Amino acid sequence: MDEHSARMALSCVVEPANVEIAQAVVDLGPVVVWEALLASGGALARKAAVLDLDKVREAAKRAGIRFVIPGCGEWVDALADLHRGEPVNQLSGVPFGLWLRGAGHL
């Protein structure tokens, strides 16, 4: 699995701003985190096991939605600072990616 797919999969399975997983993505990378999540045997692993990214991509395409990740041309580099802030309601971290709709460019 490539980085884009791993980040997309994580965004579909993990609650946004999950502090532990967001930090693990920063420390280990999204592919390693996704593979560990699949192997964990927990509730997220069961949710991840049934995720069909091809269907997600097809639905996004039909809806005119795209998924951007750190390092792509549309990513806002200032988002990297989000992992440095104090958690709010136990939520923090850099987004796995952003789902965008429309022709505009971030």
Topology:
Layout: H1 3-13, H2 19-28, H3 30-39, H4 43-49, H5 53-63, E1 65-68, E2 98-101
Antiparallel strand pairs: 1-2
Give a written overview of the molecule.
The chain is mostly helical and 106 residues long. The protein has 5 helices and 2 strands, in the order H-H-H-H-H-E-E. The protein has a two-stranded antiparallel sheet with strand order 1-2. The longest helix has 11 residues, at 3-13.
The helix/strand class is mainly alpha
- What is Rg? 14 Å
Number of helices: 5
Main pleated sheet: 2 strands, antiparallel
Mean pLDDT: 89
The succession of helices and strands, N to C, reads: HHHHHEE
How far do the termini sit from each other? 26 Å
Strand content: 5-15%
* Number of DSSP E strands: 2
